[in-house]
Each structure stands twice: as structure tokens, then as C-alpha cells.
Fold each of these.
Amino acid sequence: MVKKDNSQEVNMADRHEPEVAPKDATRRQFLQYAGVAGAALAMSDTILPTAAEAVPAVAMPLLMPLAMSNTGPGEIPRKPLGRTGVEVSVIGLGGSTLGNAASYEEAEQIVHEAIDAGVTFMDNAWEYNEGRSEDWMGRALQGRRDKVFLMTKVCTHGRDRNVAMQMLEDSLRRLKTDHLDLWQVHEVIYYNDPELHFAPNGVIEALEQAKQQGKVRFVGFTGHKHPQIHMKMLQLADQHNYHFDTVQMPLNAFDATYRSFEQTILPEALRRGMGALGMKSLGGGGQPLMQGAINVQDALRYAMSLPVATTISGIDSLSVLRQNLAIARGFKPLSVQEMQAIRTRSAPMAADGHLELYKSTKHYDAAEGRKQHGFPAQEELPV
């Protein structure tokens, strides 16, 4: 049975064990990887394919899996977070859906069970569930804060540095900590967002101020709409001589065919030494699973096999947590052939974008961003 939520589901159908990806990449494979990073820059001034011009899921440039540690039987492996010197668990706990748990008690148990299993990456955002997600996570982390890599996001959506710094204080209070391991600009999804964020007295200045004050270790940005907007953020970072430690983006088997972050932003992030964070491994609300496009095992293993530090998983119940932990324990990356087979199977349904509504519609855009950009609230839009 499928459980509809913001990221994952509860179906363990069609499980199988993948082979380990080859570690001895050939010179030709390495050049393929180097070529795609350059191609990403070359495409930066163009609009990427839309539904009518979807990218066919043919042979993809090879992105080699990241090295993993903590790979013993039954363990949750860890991967390096770019050049930060930090390693994080291959699966992360999503804050948005944590705030949708049936009760605080269940949310607390989710956090505790995840940490005890070896999950170290904790995701959140100032605006999730009007602060409840941060509050519940903060309460659950009491006595366990030093066991996790804690990230939350600032939600200015174009407002100034002062708003950002107040949001930081709100987040620290709710999360019951004196510092964040990672603070990211949330939902860079509108075409004027990059300019707004890098404007004088904008949120980028707040990121730097927070680091100087010792309240934030690393900084990054997130978004789910279009690779072109992510690329614009990276170009402006170059112009301002600014370095992001991380970038978060939707990465799944369907993304490979439609407005692909995997083909453009992921290799560019790796070239820059940034830690790539994957999200929406099952298309946001589980639509691909409900339409029979993929099963949870293939979807999550595909996402974790990409060269990302962690795949952030939406978990609102103990059953979903235990399902995803079972997939992550002892994880080994899929082979190149297995990855391509999943992309090819997914391509016919993925090409028009209806399996990635966060790209092709405004249905997943947060209320704070809608308000700041003059769009109606989500409940006023047709579903």
C-alpha cells in the first residue's frame, strides 16, 4: 500500500540486491565525467529542456559514486560532504514530514530510532509547518545534539539580512542549540531569486555574518524548480567571489529525463568541491509509485547511488523510517548498467514532468515564497 506524503512511501515491493559499482573507472569514463562538468557551464546561458523538449534517457555521462565509510553489515554508510571534512549518513531525516507525524511522541521516536540506527543528517527549515518541525526536532535532539549534523534553512524569499538573522535566532531557539552545522537559503525557485539573494543587505550577507559569529559552520542553498536557477546562483557566487559549501536539489530517476539537475548541476557542484544533497527521491508526493513508474527500493537506491553526500528522505511515521533504514543498511551503489536500466524504464512516464510536480507546477512552492512573490496561497490553487 502506498502512503502519500511529501517524499517517501511504504511499499517494499520488488526488492533485489544490486551489484557494487566498479571502482576502477577507465580513462574514458573519467573524461566523460569531466566533459559533463564543462557542458554544464556551457549550458548556463540557455534554458534547459521543458516538457516539450525533454532529454531522452540515453547513455548518461558517468558520475562515479563517492567513497563510503562505516560500511559494515547492517550499518548506515557515510559519505564525504564536499570539501568540508565532514562525513554524513547516506540517508537523511527530512524535517518537513517530521512535523506531519501523528504526534510529537511519534516524531521523537522517529528521531531517536534514526540516530540509534546511524542516521546523522538532520534536515529542517524555518518555515516548515509554521515552526513545528524545528520545535519537534529540537525537543527530540535534547541530549543527542552532538550525534547529528544539523541543517536548517533560512526563508527570506528576497527579504533583507535583518529578516534572515531574526529567522536564525528563531531556528536556534526552536532547535535548542547554539549553532547550526549547515544553514541554507531555502527554495531558490523564482528567476529573480538569485539577484535578490546576492543584493546588498541580502541573505548572502546574513550567511557570512552568521559564520563570523560562530552560529553557523557551513552554508548552502536549495531549490526544486529549474536547473537554470541553480546555475544562476553559482554564476553570481563566482561574480561575488563567494563559496557555497553545499547545494540541495531534486535527484531521482525521473529527473534524468526532465529538466535534469543530475546532468547539469550535480557535476558542476562536484567540480567546485561542494557537498551535493539530494531530495525528492520519489518525486515529492509519491506520484511515481502510485502510477507504477517505480518501486521504493529502486527509487531510493538510485538516488543514493548518485555522488551525493546524503539523500534526504521525507519520513512522517515509524513504518516509513523502518522501511528506509532497511534499504540504507549495508547500502552498496547500483552499477552503471542498473542505473541506466532504471532511467530507461522511467523515461516514458517522466518526459512530460507530471511525475515531478515541484518542477512543472507551483503546487509544492512554500507559502512564504508565494507571499513574497505575489502568488496566491497554495489552498487557493487547483490541485
Note: Residues 1-59 have pLDDT under 50 and may be disordered.
Amino acid sequence: MTPHVQHDSNRRGVLVIHPGALGDVLLARPVLHALQRQFSQHEIALLAGNAVGTLLRDAGEIDRVFPLESTYLSELFAGHDSLCAPFKRWLSRCDKAVGWFRDADAALVRTLRAAGVQSINLRSSSSQECFAEHQSDRYLESVEIADAGRACNLPLILSPAVMAEAQQILRSLNWDSRSPLVVIHPGSGSPHKCVEAWRLAEVIQWFIEVGMTPMLLEGPADREPCARVLSALRTPVPVIRGLNLSKSAAVLAQAALYLGHDSGVTHLAAALAVPTVACFGPTNPRRWAPLGPTVSVVSGEPCACSTWSDVASCQARVCLQIAPERMIAACRAQLDKQP
């Protein structure tokens, strides 16, 4: 069932449609920033996952969320007559729509035009008509926005209320804020993107030895990788678990350093301007690495797998054979850059 959509007749709208996962949506933030500047009097709405949409709305980067988990996207594909009345009214005052996916038979474009949207730019960022290398630049290129770039990738700003909640969560895990907090995310969207647990365990042991407070961040799909790291540790460390995305972001924002893989959480840490060390493989960091001056990427040997089937059957995993000493060096370099 589609939730009620409040109607504000005083503002025109801009709709951004992004059905991707957390990291993909965060890489599209420069587009949101460009649209905010170009349409400063408009209401910017995002049709995306509710968790990331709520995060971006609360950070002031969009004005409204149309949750992907609801029926909005299916209504758009089904046709104008299938739109719920509040969504139809909102689209009637929408001046522009952009998005990243294949609309092969132009069904969605027809619905938007019938609803009254004048400017529509929907295209897959994987289109052969896109030539930019980094995914963030491809998002900009595919919707033909030229006045933005990586310099517009401003840090996410979280509310004082959720930051205070995060501090309470960390205090409950015996962090007193006197020692620097390090958050380690052992998981990823795919187990084929994760380094071996013993490698992370060696780095975590170094954090402990130099007087830092390492904690693991466990999301809903991270139980197994967290358990493997815990079993490889000589000294147990706390595990942060059971948080929604906004509270996870607020916990990350308290950290002096973040260590993770090619994952949405890593992109979130980078978006918060937390000093970030990202272990990449087999995905190409030139295409998918998080952006920002606080990000360092470490990888093993170049990946020779040409498809994800090859990745799944690969035993060597040379791209993820990253020596703990290299991770420690990257972490040390990030820490040395901080005041």
C-alpha cells in the first residue's frame, strides 16, 4: 500500500529515481547537490530505498522520500491511471525527473509525461553513451548535468539528536571517548569482496596495541564475517549491531578512522568525511571507490576475473591478498593527516 503523500501546492518539484543500493545512491549525491543549486526553489524528491532516502532527507540533501519499498516505482511502470491520487498530484507540479535504469519500452517516460513532467532524463549509467570512468561522474553524465563534480561531494550533516543517540550507544559499549574510536566493517554486499578474517584481525590487534578502541560494525547480513573476525582475534572487541542506517551513520561519525571493504557502509563513512581505508577487490576502485580527500584505497594484485562467475569460482583471490602491514600503513597515514 502506498503511504499518504502530503501535497504542498506552493512548490514545484524535481524527482530523482535511484533503485540502487546504499553505496550506489551515495555516489549520486553530486547530482542531488547540482539539482539543489539549479532548482533552489523546488522540492527535491528521491524515489529510492527508504533507509538511505530518510538519511539524505534528514541531512537536508533532499526534501521528500518516495520509498522504493512502496508501490511508487511499480505505479510509474504500470501507467498514469495506476498512480495513486497523492503521487499523481505531486507529479503534476514536477518540472524535471532524472533516474538511472533501463526504461526499454519507455513505459515510465510515458507515465511521467502524462502526469505533466516536462523534462525527463532516464538512462542507465552503464549505457555505452557514457564515457566517464568513475561511477559518480557517470551519474552526472548520464543525466546531462555538467555544472557539478566531485568538489560538490560535501560531507553529510547529521542531526544533533541522532549524534547524541550514537554517543549513548558507544558509552554502553564502554567507550569513554578518551581513546580514538576505530570502526571496522568486516562485511560487504558480497563475500567475494572481503579480505580474509585473519588479515583484519592483525590490523585490529595493532589498533589495540597503539591505544585505540576498535569496534566491529555488524549489519543485518554481516553475522558470519563478524564471527570469523572475532574468532581470529587474540583480544575480544565490542560489536555494534542492531542499528538502523541513520544510527549507524551517527556511530561512524564519531570514529577517528574507518576500515572496510567495497560496501555501502564504506561509502557512508566516506560521505561523512570519516578518515576511511577501503580494501578493494575484485571491483575496480577507479570506477567504484568512494570519493573524498579522507579516503585511501588498498588492493592486492590486479584481478584477472572477467565475470562475476569467474569471481565466484576464483580460488586465488589475488586481488584481496592485502598484507596487514599495508592496511596498517594506510591507516597510519590517514591518522597522521588528522589534527
Note: The radius of gyration is 21 Å.
Amino acid sequence: MPRFAANLSMLYTELPFLDRFAAAAADGFEAVEYLFPYDFAPADLAARLREHGLQQVLFNSPPGDWAAGERGLACLPGREADLRDAVATALDYAQALDCPRIHLMAGLVPEGRTRAELRPLYIDNLHRAAEMAAQAGREVLIEPINTRDIPGFFLNRQDEAHAVVQAVGAPNLKVQMDLYHCQIVEGDVATKIRRYLPTGRVGHFQVAGVPERHEPDVGELHYPYLFDVIDEVAAQCGWQGWVGCEYRPARGAIPSGTTGGLAWMRA
């Protein structure tokens, strides 16, 4: 089976954030990811990782003003300096947490603009971000996100993301392949795993049930088959990444909380 990382922004929300590390380790996770670490000192997060024998495998760079609706800066004209600061902050945290990769959210298409108009800026920004990350020994990931969850998001399809990575041409720029978003936008998920994983451009997977974003055993995707596909292709091409569990537990209200919904992983 793939190696699973607990997304602590969505799992174990019945607990305070810093207590979620222990809960994830107790349930057998060996790695964690989350959206943003910036409400906590790097030393405090690093201490939780060490205490519970966990690897930090992913988090997002600062996305701009989240409360005001911003969902990333990489496609936004006039925000280049803010983006560089965000990447620098993320890389500081990545070093402290020994995290090999950061996700750089693309952002929302501004009113009156088109994706085609913004693409050159997006590519330029990714090139600079990848250069900064390379100097720190880190990878930068980009993620296609469905426009039902984030209307107006710049990047939506796997083929678009891989074309961008090829256009930038940086070996440390890769695609974060979230199978939940992929199914909603495109479908044909297994074929896309077989197509893109051998290219070396997939840096990370994420999973959730479709359409409600609950456990992988809830919904229309048959994840046991997809996990077998990942295993098969990974063995052929030497991929050794992680699969992030970025879902909202449907069973979170029961006394056992997130743990009660992990039968899919134990199986």
C-alpha cells in the first residue's frame, strides 16, 4: 500500500491542533501534512514531530489574505513582492521542520482577466519560486483544484498543471495530484495516474471520497483499486512519495472521532 500522511488541518479536528500529532502517530501514521503552520512557532511544531516520530511532508506557503478570500498569489498581477515574501517564509518553516516540499497556491483569476492572460505571469512567478526553493533544497508543488470548492481558481486540470511544469522547466517544480479534485473536474483517474506518475512530475498525492470529501471508502471512487494502481506504477518508475489524507471525517461526531473512520486504512 502507499505511504499515508495525515492532514492535520482536516483530521483530528476534535482535538487542539498541537495534540493532533500524537493522535496521528497513535493511529499508525508516519507522516503529516496540513494547510498552514504559521500560527505556531517552528520550534513547537518541530518538537511535536520529533516527540512522535513523524515526518513533515507538505504544507502550503502563505496564500495572501485568506480571511478576505485570497487563495494564493502566484497568478495575481502586482503581488510579485508579496509572493516572494510568502515563499521565503514557507522555506524558513520547511527548513525548521525538515519538510522537503511546499505547495504554492495559484490564486483566483481576478475579475475581468483570463487565464490565458495570466499564464505568463504565473510561469514567471513559479520560475522564481522554484529557484528560491532549489537554493534551500526544497520542491515547489502546484495543485489543480476544482472550481466547485474554490470557484475561480486559476489551475483546474492535470494536463494544465503538467504543461505549466514543463514550461517552467525547473526539476524541483512538480504537481500535487489530488485525486478528489481530479475526479470532480476530469474523472478517468486511474488512467491519469498511469499517464503522469512515470513522468517524474508528480510530487505528492492527496485523497478524499467524492463528492462529499469524506473518508476514501465513502463515495463514488473505489480507492482500493486506485491504491493498487499507485503501487503498481510507483514500483515501475521508482516513485517513493506520500499520499496525503486530506478529507473531512464523516464520523467525526462519534466518540472515537477521526480514529473511528480509519477502517479504510487498516484494511
Note: The chain has a mean pLDDT of 96.
